[in-house]
Amino acid sequence: MISELDAQVGRIFWAPTVESQSLYPYIKGTKKQGRDAYRDLPRAVRTADNWKLIKYNVKQWETTQLFDLNKDPYETRNLANDPAFRQKKQQSETRLVSEMKTYHDFLNFGKPNGGTQP
């Protein structure tokens, strides 16, 4: 029988039948191949006034999405390239970079593979 302590990981309760693999070797950079699903993970930030910025790379293409969740809760209208929202996008990107630094996330969207590989 699995104990509650064993089942609790990061405040997420896992069923005893769930099999998982640590992402630590990938994050640390000691393991290069593995789950492609974990490559190019998006980074996102949600503001107090209910805006959401998402950044990710798809096959070396940097993608940015910006949503006003007050008016568009289902994220159907990407405002990232709308000049009317340029300032909100810049503010959100600045906040995202700040949060990434806080958590020692050094992904660089401007470089191939986020700057994680030579």
Automatic annotation (TrEMBL):
Ranges of residues in domain N-sulphoglucosamine sulphohydrolase C-terminal: 43-98
Coiled-coil boundaries: none
TM spans (from-to): none
Entries under Pfam families matching the protein: SGSH_C
Descriptive protein name: DUF4976 domain-containing protein
Organism: Larkinella rosea
